[in-house]
Design brief:
By secondary structure, this protein is α+β, with helices and mostly antiparallel strands. It has 15 helices and 16 strands. The chain folds into two domains: 241 residues, Bira Bifunctional Protein, Domain 2 (BirA Bifunctional Protein, domain 2, 2-Layer Sandwich), CATH 3.30.930.10; 86 residues, Rossmann fold, CATH 3.40.50. The protein is 38% helix and 21% strand. Bound molecules: adenosine-5'-triphosphate and magnesium ion.
């Protein structure tokens, strides 16, 4: 007989269950609560876009575009890509939906994103991001607000301890050009010592050599000129305003002059929240200002700044979140009680009480289930109780028990 092979989960994807799911949901619920405090509105955008949306906005030379995208031709012959991040799709929506009229637009979103990467701890092929953006605000106040939001999120998740905000500036266009030329001169002088990858970067994207992880590149990257000498007075003032805002809001930060975002349209602020608690996957939240992005998609020049964080990486840092508490477990004994319990459970749930019904096994197994679920009460329905129109309500833990009329149950449990 032919053996049927059980299908496998696709490499790099996850089935999120139990404790893991509770941590995951806690991150999303906390983000939802905090974004409302900062008056950001929630949006939702498609999971796939025309491939050009990402290829043009992320740049053909980035790792994401050149190696990591899930692109495919659909049945109509169009080239589509599963989103590898949110910003490009949001910029596309800003243009196609006429959201310019709402500028400055403060928005958040969350959901699955897809990258073809080598799976390992904290690195998946389908993972989840939370994302916050301010579009149409060129003021440093927008950068500050986003960073304070990120900081409060980490604090409310209880993981701010051990996570550091690293901050840098990439200056304005004039700054970048001058700094880039100085970097190229420096790297050219050390051509022979650079890694293979960095030689390619030198041609296409020299700034990226600065954050190379290759030990061969590190000494050359570390001795490269800092941007500071090239900052225009305007760019210096912008960075000072951001750091002053963070200080005023009580958000700790560290300067990391090696932190770069490789693309030409990045300006001014670049940042990462990093930890050493996750091994090699130490960046939990990252972002920056991308004033040239919407222009590069063919739209009007529009300022923008934003960040994204990996939900799985945040969830991994959480202490054990409490199991979802339920109010009561209904324990019917016998067929009559079971029939009656169906109506009682439905009434309680409609009254806003979280109830489970234990209908498997003997009385002992049913009471054990009530304990295992961490319910506050067991509602015991036997023949005697049914005859009297009452339920025996046992406070689990305390062990005390009282009789409550069916009509008063919801009130008594709340
Ligand atoms: P990394 O250097 O870890 O590859 P990245 O620079 O590619 O990160 P971003 O594009 O800035 O990451 O994405 C923002 C956040 O999304 C990261 O800080 C991280 O928390 C999370 N993230 C990125 N790639 C993955 C992945 N493959 N699996 C899980 N989380 C990820
Ligand atoms: Mg990556």
């Amino acid at each position: 007989m032919a053996r049927i092979e059980t299908p496998r989960r696709v490499r790099g994807t996850q089935d999120i269950f139990g404790d893991e799911q509770r941590r995951f949901a806690h991150v999303l619920a906390t983000f939802e609560r905090v974004r409302a405090l900062y008056c950001f509105q929630r949006i939702d955008i498609p999971v796939f876009e025309s491939t050009a949306v990402f290829a043009r906005s992320l740049g053909e030379t980035t790792d994401v575009v050149s190696k990591e995208m899930y692109s495919f031709e659909d049945r109509g012959g169009d080239s589509l890509t599963l989103r590898p991040e949110f910003t490009a799709g949001i910029a596309r929506a800003y243009l196609t939906e006429g959201w310019q009229q709402f500028a400055p637009l403060k928005i958040t979103t969350s959901g699955p994103v897809f990258r073809y990467e080598r799976p390992q701890k904290g690195r998946f092929r389908q993972f989840h991001q939370i994302d916050a953006e301010v579009i149409g605000a060129a003021e440093p106040a927008a950068d500050v607000e986003l960073l304070v939001l990120a900081d409060q999120l980490l604090r409310e998740l209880g993981i701010a301890e051990g996570v550091t905000l690293q901050l840098n500036t990439l200056g304005d266009a004039a700054t970048r050009e001058a700094w880039r030329a100085a970097l190229v001169a420096h790297f050219e002088a050390h051509r022979g010592e650079l890694s293979e990858d960095s030689l390619t970067r030198l041609e296409k994207n020299p700034m990226r050599i600065l954050d190379s992880k290759d030990p061969k590149d590190r000494p050359i990257a570390d001795s490269a000129p800092d941007i500071d000498a090239y900052l225009t007075p305007e760019a210096r003032a912008f960075f000072d305003a951001v750091t002053a805002g963070l200080d005023a809001a009580g958000v700790a930060w560290e300067r990391n002059a090696r932190l770069v975002r490789g693309l030409d349209y990045y300006r001014h602020t670049a940042f990462e929240f990093v930890t050493d608690r996750l091994g090699a996957q130490g960046t939990v939240l990252a972002g920056g200002r991308y004033d040239g992005l919407i222009g590069s998609l063919g739209g009007p020049e529009t300022a923008g700044v934003g960040w994204a964080a990996g939900v799985e990486r945040l969830a991994m840092l959480l202490d054990e979140p409490a199991a979802a508490a339920i109010d009561a477990v209904v324990v019917p004994m016998g067929a009559d009680a079971e029939a009656r319990a169906t109506g009682i459970v439905a009434d309680l749930r409609r009254a806003g009480v979280a109830v489970e019904m234990a209908y498997k096994g003997k009385m002992k197994a049913r009471m054990a289930k009530a304990d295992a679920l961490g319910a506050r009460f067991a509602i015991i329905l036997g023949d005697d109780e049914l005859a009297k129109g009452v339920a025996a309500v046992k406070t689990l833990g305390a062990g005390t028990q009282v009789e409550v009329a069916f009509a008063d149950l919801a009130e008594a449990l709340r």
